[in-house]
Known about the structure:
Blueprint: E1 11-17, E2 21-28, E3 33-40, E4 52-53, H1 55-69, E5 78-85, E6 89-93, E7 111-112, H2 120-128, H3 146-156, E8 165-170, H4 171-180, E9 185-186, H5 187-193, H6 204-209, H7 214-217, E10 227-228, H8 240-246, E11 253-254, E12 258-259, H9 260-268, E13 288-293, E14 297-303, E15 313-317, E16 325-331, H10 335-343, H11 348-357, H12 362-373, E17 387-389, E18 407-409, H13 417-444, E19 451-455, H14 462-472, E20 476-479, H15 484-497, H16 503-510, E21 513-517, H17 524-549
Parallel strand pairs: 1-5, 5-11, 5-12, 9-10, 13-19, 19-20
Antiparallel strand pairs: 1-2, 2-3, 4-7, 6-7, 6-8, 13-14, 14-16, 15-16, 17-18, 20-21
Helix pairs in contact: 2-3, 9-15, 10-13, 11-12, 12-13, 13-14, 15-16
The structure holds adenosine-5'-diphosphate and ribulose-5-phosphate.
Keywords: Kinase, Transferase
EC number: 2.7.1.47
Protein name: FGGY carbohydrate kinase domain-containing protein
Amino acid sequence: MPGGDQEPGRYYVGVDVGTGSVRAALVDQRGTLLAFADQAINKWEPQFNHHEQSSEDIWAACCIVTKKVVQGIDLNQIRGLGFDATCSLVVLDKQFRPLPVNHEGDSHRNIIMWLDHRAVSQVHRINNTKHSVLQYVGGVMSVEMQAPKLLWLKENLRETCWDKAGHFFDLPDFLSWKATGVTARSLCSLVCKWTYSAEKGWDDSFWKMIGLEDFVSDNYSKIGNQVLPPGASLGNGLTPEAARDLGLPAGIAVAASLIDAHAGGLGVIGTDVRGHGLACEGQPVTSRLAVICGTSSCHMGISKDPIFVPGVWGPYFSAMVPGFWLNEGGQSVTGKLIDHMVQGHAAFPELQARATARCQSIYAYLNSHLDLIKEAQPVGFLTVDLHVWPDFHGNRSPLADLTLKGMVTGLKLSQDLDDLAILYLATVQAIAFGTRFIIEAMEAAGHSISTLFLCGGLSKNPLFVQMHADITGMPVVLSQEVESVLVGAAILGACASGDFTSVQEAMARMSKVGRVVFPRLEDKRYYDKKYQVFLKLVEHQKEYAAIMKGD
Length: 551
Ligand SMILES: Nc1ncnc2c1ncn2[C@@H]1O[C@H](COP(=O)(O)OP(=O)(O)O)[C@@H](O)[C@H]1O
Ligand SMILES: O=C(CO)[C@H](O)[C@H](O)COP(=O)(O)O
């Protein structure tokens, strides 16, 4: 009986592979998390801008967390399993063994991570082709997508990797293959990161033009020639081998996967908002923007017709919510930037010591410290003369310029805790201004957004959430389940099990509003002024670059 809430004990397992850790949850039909576990994963940075991981290490972490969340449960009640993961590139040989993606020849490190920027020369050449597929990635391909990384492998690791490779997977598809033995790819990963079109399939001319004609001649067998919608049931379900690894019954339904940001989108965007006084109540779901904030932030807006937003990825058809086009804005480093700013400050050891003494996280400590020093004014006003441009790892959206750098203006000689707290605040605000910049670009192109739905690790930070509300002027909805990305993964498992008739039905039933944070409209004038400065920062940065380029 599809969607029958009255049937107790139908559970789904969601597995979410983020940049820094793997998380799993046991989730019921109402979207409630009954158990949660997480496990850190290894990352390597053998040289600047090269970021690598290991698919064996990640699978082992998936097994650890999955076994933990199903402990003590009647395994027969588990109906489906869904994976989401970062859009990193996994390389395997023809026998599905890991291949090295590095000059050292270390085959354990067989993943080029999403934030790896090694393929700069390759992406410039790809963009110079002006091929029509680029229209569907915001006009400019990102160095973080798969085509430039594949070209880099061909040009740099021909003998040790490229010639031996049998399978290139997006990480979410690697996980579903590992669980089921099915090599079919998810429409989500292929459309968003590999230039596949939901309507027209692969474009041979693109791969030939960029020098990767190899894929065309073998009918795309190495990158995927069978494509399934996210949530579709794969093959015969969980293989006996994977079932042993994960501690689950063989044969349970396993879903075609999603990229992590897209799973977060499914986990929050379809929720029933009645009774919360939100402008999006009674309005189409297209007035909502899901913002998934972890190591990076991703801004997911959907539309009935394709909308072309310069510098914002997409439009991607059916890549997140079936039947809708998706535009995906993004900031490549947000959580990672906050961590970087805080950990690199001279007062960081003092912060750590004080937070530990109070049994608080460093961010909870910093937030309470800001409350202490703000005196009578709103906390956000502490940065009246300190401004940050947040593109320390280039700009993903809406400028699509990977050469941009971070900027800080208003530095003083002090290095104390007050100074660290205010720099942290200015960084959080800069990220929120970046979100406003992306929303303005999306609205200028035809989106009409009234409400933000935040999830991911940073949504646990009340300052980050309030600054997003104040700076965008929009209410921010937080889900009942903080781990909404895992709810998204579980929704996939639920769809694969056949317990819901559609992704939309599962979304509506399994995601719930927790709390709404409204903007402090009385502070609007201050943030409008800071936004003017924010836009000046990048204008000035471009002027500096032009001066230095001149004779
Ligand atoms: N309780 C919290 N308060 C403040 N920041 C947090 C909290 N929990 C996680 N974060 C921040 O969120 C980021 C990681 O988010 P997460 O969703 O776990 O990332 P990923 O999916 O990329 O692994 C980190 O920068 C971390 O500092
Ligand atoms: O490109 C992306 C989604 O399209 C994400 O930025 C990438 O997958 C990393 O996610 P996270 O910051 O949650 O680890």
